[in-house]
Amino acid sequence: MEIGRPYFGISSDGQNVDLFTLSNDNGIIIKITNYGGIITSLSVHDRNGNKGDIVLGFDKLGGCLGEHPYFGAKYRTLVYYHNYVVCKLPGIPDLIAIVREPVSGRNMDVFSTQPGVQLYTANWLDGKLAGKGGKYNEKHSAFSWRRNIFLILLIILIFHRSY
User: Fold this and answer.
1) What's the number of domains the chain is made of?
2) Can you tell me the distance from the alpha carbon of 72 to that of 135, in angstroms, rounded to the nearest whole number?
């Protein structure tokens, strides 16, 4: 595994922002900022061995600083999602979702230790926001999975244990 840390820019409050680049022996490369943990790129191979970036985002930090739907953001809530209950024991990693993309042959197996998962469907995109390479991002042109512990259930359990 290799780790790089090139300079990416300056945040709106004057802080230096770096872009951590991690790569492994299989040629998978991920780029993550120290500005909110934003994943700016994840390059993986398709069935023919061609590498492609599968993350929506921006080429420069300026795009991350402006108004946008938090592409790649780890610490920000997104606009539209579906919530699913997973029948499993909490705390034990299990396969909870499988995604297959027939054109590229890319596959995603989603594992979680949580009893729920949220599917974000990029419903808010309208084709007006330019991202990487000046490409415009259309509605439903991306998705992401987030594990979920059902906050309301957690609040109920805490309340119940208090009495």
Assistant:
1) 1
2) 16
**Can you tell me the distance from the alpha carbon of 62 to that of 10, in angstroms, rounded to the nearest whole number?**
9
Helix (H, G, I), strand (E, B) or coil at 20: strand
Contact in structure between 43 and 57 (CB atoms under 8 Å): no
Question: Which tens digit of pLDDT belongs to each residue from 31-66?
Answer: 988 888 888 888 999 999 999 998 888 888 877 777
Instruction: Please report, for the domain that includes residue 7, its CATH number.
Output: 2.70.98.10
Give the long-range contacts of residues 2-7, CB within 8 A, separation 24 or more: none
Residue 162: its pLDDT value, please? 47
pLDDT tens digits for range 65-123? 777 666 666 544 466 567 787 877 767 888 888 989 999 999 989 888 887 788 888 88
Q: Which among 58, 63, 75 is positioned nearest to 11, based on CA atoms?
A: 63
